[in-house]
Design a protein that fits this description.
Helix content: 55-70%
Distance between the termini: 28 Å
Shape: globular
CATH topology of the domain at 53-131 and 141-179: Four Helix Bundle (Hemerythrin (Met), subunit A)
CATH superfamily of the domain at 53-131 and 141-179: dinb family like domain
Structural class: mainly alpha
InterPro entries: DinB/YfiT-like, DUF1706
Protein name: ClbS/DfsB family four-helix bundle protein
Strand content: under 5%
Largest sheet: none
Number of helices: 8
Number of strands: 0
CATH class of the domain at 53-131 and 141-179: Mainly Alpha
Pfam families: DUF1706
Oligomer: single chain
Length: 179
Amino acid sequence: MVKPKTKETLIEQAHRQFNQMFNMLEGLSSEDKMTAFSFDKPKSDQAAHWTRDKNLRDIYIHLYEWHKLLINWLTTNLNNQSSAFLPNAYNWKTYGDMNMMFWEKHQITSYDHAEKMLKNSHREVMDLIANLDEKGLFEKGFYDWSGTTSIGSYCVSATCSHYEWAMNKMKRHRKKVLS
């Protein structure tokens, strides 16, 4: 899928992919939605998330926590208070540890609550994006606090790219439970 380069495309694609994620679960029972993953990770992809995420709830929580990172970063910086995208204890070399921390933090979160949190955070992210102008979203260096990357890139990463990642795992789960 081509990464969005306009506000309109970002909004359209993020909503479409978000809805696709949930639509692909139609026909699954509540038990199927809450059951642990039982598919094998792809041999060609050794990324940590294949062993970290054990069920749909874990995927929802991962997406939710990355939404919250984006929301906090945008809100804080747009209000003229300096904030890094990642929490102080992490950087782009150690964000896998942060993802594991998110996973551990939510092991007591229920599937239903995780789904509700994700739907709310998606709505919040989309409202933030809708209130940004095109230039502010996609012009590199428009905001000095975004470094050499546009904030639109961060938005794409926390929405479209992450939803595509999630759907890859969800498709495997759906196939396995319906077989």
